[in-house]
Amino acid sequence: MSELTREEVKRYSRHLILPEVGLDGQEALKDASILLIGTGGLGAPLATYLSAAGIGKLGLVDNDVVDTSNLQRQIIHTTHDVGRSKLESAKESINALNPEVNVELYETFLRSDNAMEIAKDYDIIIDGTDNFPTRYLVNDLCVLLKKPNVYGSVFRFDGQATVFDAQKGPCYRCLFPEPPPPGMVPSCAEGGVLGVLPGLIGMIQATEAIKLIIGHGETLIGRLIVFDALGMRFREMKLKKDPNCPICGENPTVTELIDYEQFCGISDAEHEPYDGELEISAKELEERLKGDNPPFLLDVREWEEHELCHIENSTLIPIENLSAQYQALDPTRETVAICKVGIRSMRAQQFLMEHGFTKVWNLTGGIVEWREDVDPEMYEY
């Protein structure tokens, strides 16, 4: 076990006087290695507190750049970092806070063909992602490598955290055997998230990782913490191992990493519109709106999004309300469904065509593409 230097004794003195941590615990932290998937909302507080705690080796996986909209919650980055690689920005912040941490960068998407090689030498994997394919990938990776998966998720005002460890309890697939249909659960970019929420959930994840390393305290293995920020309430759910789980059950059928986008239906949803053709670009829509018989514009975003920015003469019916209000629309009129990036509008397109509408188009790229290609003065959110 690594010994602490004189400077490290001073740095971690508040840990060293805790009987549950002490010298042995701090040296264990120094020897530990953690792989953090994502340096965004959850990854920012995770990387900050784990490096401050003295984790010896911290691996960061990300392939994104810092955007202005990230700064509301991704506190490891600053305004100066907008446009920079998130990994380079995060490493700079970590090194400024604790230069003793060995930071390894993996500027790539975690995929089935690289995950094993990246993760094999780390003690703990922490899931700081926001999409279902990567969550299932991280879960299966941890089960196959027999490593704990410290899990967290946030959406709007709600957060969840637990520790999946198939050696001692359930895995992610025990809780969620099947992914939701594509587009059914909006991303944070579509649904929003309270800026402080990832900080709270990320710190719970960091706490769990530290407890796993020092070997003290009751971990969240077999327990799911659910947090409601608006009500300021924590709830706890007991989780049980599923004997029929396809990867950690008694007769596993998943024995290697698979195509997780295909498993979650993402590939088909993104590349195959409802009838294979009914997509319209922002430029094409702009031209159609200049004609004598412009299409009906159906905006299926939330009211708050519509207030920020919208295409002129569009009608707002949030996707959650569409099933109750669609009968007021003309099923024979050419309709263009609109949302922020084209996922919710695709769901609206499918719903309407299943209910007798004959000409429903989906605006490719949604309001984001409209702003980029047609109206650069539109607010970006």
Question: Gist?
Answer:
This protein is elongated. The protein is α/β, with parallel strands linked by helices and 381 residues long. The chain is built from 17 helices and 13 strands.
Q: Distance between the terminal alpha carbons, to the nearest Å? A: 49 Å
Question: Which percent band covers the strand fraction?
Answer: 15-25%
- The first-level CATH class of the largest domain is given as Alpha Beta
Task: Write down the Rg.
Answer: 23 Å
Task: List SSEs in N-to-C order.
Answer: HHHEHEHEHEHEEHHHEEHHEHEHEHEHEH
Specify the biggest β-sheet: 8 strands, mixed
Q: Could you list the spans in which at least 5 consecutive residues all have pLDDT below 50?
A: 268-276
Helix content: 25-40%
- The CATH architecture of the largest domain comes to 3-Layer(aba) Sandwich
Number of strands: 13
- How many domains would you count in the coordinates? 2
CATH level-four homologous superfamily name of the largest domain: NAD(P)-binding Rossmann-like Domain
Residue-averaged pLDDT: 93
Q: What is the CATH topology classification name of the largest domain?
A: Rossmann fold
Strand order of the largest sheet: 3-2-1-4-5-6-7-8
- How would the global form be characterised? elongated
Number of helices: 17
The secondary-structure class comes to alpha/beta
